[in-house]
Amino acid sequence: MSKACLVVAIVASVAAYGPARADDCDAVLAELAATVTGLDVGERITSTGNSDTVQLKHGAADDIKLTCAPPAAHQPNQIAVVWHSAFPPPSYFDLLAAAGAIVTTNSTTTIRKGALACQKHALTADIENSEFNLASVNFSCSVTTRNGGRTAITVSSTRDDIALTQKAPPETATPELQTRKKTTTRKESGVKQSRE
Predict the structure, then answer these.
(1) What's the alpha-carbon Rg for the chain, to the nearest Å?
(2) What is the DSSP letter of 121?
(3) Is 38 inside any structural domain?
(4) Taking the model in full, what pTM does it have?
(5) Residue 175 domain boundaries
(6) 3-state SS class at 7
(7) CA angle 152–10–26, rounded 5-degree value
(8) Residue 40 domain-assigned?
(9) How far apart are CA 28 and CA 123, in angstroms?
(10) What total number of domains does the chain contain?
């Protein structure tokens, strides 16, 4: 099926939900189908929590799910991409960057950079997880080398532009973020000195 036909099919299928379900998830699905080469879009299912989940398929991932919260929930859409190994190939990050950029309305460069940093940090973390915010994007990663390995990275937009949280991997921070961290450290040192 051509991309044009696939987009038309998506629009027609989501129309069955009626005006109440006609949210930005429809637009995200259409853009994903039109932009990400080789991506297949499955059925959109509404869960008991009233969030919609769409199963996606692509050769560069073992599992992809787009989750869209209802507009009234004021929650961001998110996409989760899974690879059954602790060390995904470059094509995995290419896919995550392309799809994640659409879902978060950010750049592919930001998504790729954050995803690589998140995966690297999760590999070295005792709990095999990592979560942090970068340039208005939240990255949540779970990476394990046990039982053949598995990498799962979820990205979503954040309402607040939080540059870096305490769980972010400092060795992969940008110079700007490192500068902010050093500034904070100096301020904290000043407080301690004043108390003494």
Answers:
(1) 19
(2) H
(3) no
(4) 0.71
(5) 45-187
(6) helix
(7) 70
(8) no
(9) 31
(10) 1
What span, in angstroms and rounded, lies between the C-alpha atoms of 39 and 31? Answer: 11
3-state secondary structure of 26: helix
d(CA 90, CA 145): 18
Judge whether 151 and 168 are in contact, CB under 8 Å.
no
Chain centroid, CA 132 distance in Å: 11
Q: Where are the beta strands (DSSP E) in the chain?
A: 40-46, 52-57, 63-68, 78-83, 129-134, 137-144, 150-157
Q: Is residue 10 part of a domain?
A: no
3-class DSSP state of 105: coil
> What is the dihedral sign for C-alpha 25, 29, 30, 36?
positive
Contacts for 180 with CB less than 8 Å, ≥ 6 apart = 163, 164
The two three-digit tokens of residue 103, written as one number: 């879902």
Q: What is the pLDDT of residue 48?
A: 61
Query: Is 67 among the domain residues?
Result: yes
Give one word for 129, left, alpha or beta, with left for phi > 0 and alpha for psi -120 to 50. Answer: beta
d(CA 84, CA 143): 10
Q: 109, 100 in Cβ contact below 8 A?
A: no
Q: Cα(40)–Cα(66) distance, rounded to whole angstroms?
A: 12
| pLDDT tens sequence across 21-36 | 446 888 999 999 999 9
* Percent with pLDDT over 70 in the chain: 68
The structure tokens listed for 196 are: 């003494």
